[in-house]
Amino acid sequence: MEAMLRTVSDSFAGASWPTASASTLRLLQSGVTADLALPDGTRVSRSIPLVDWDHPNRNHWDVADDLRVNGTSRSRGIRDLTCYVNGIPLVLIACVERDSHRHWGRVERGMAHLLRGMDPSTLEPPPRQAQVLISLDRREARYAGVGAAMHTWTRWREARWDKPTLDQLRTLPVRQHEGPPDVPLAVHAELLNGLLAHDRLLRLLRWYAQVLPHTPPRLARAAQYGGVEAALRHLRAVTRHGRSSDAQVCL
Question: Which domain holds residue 15?
Answer without folding.
Answer: 2-156+195-220
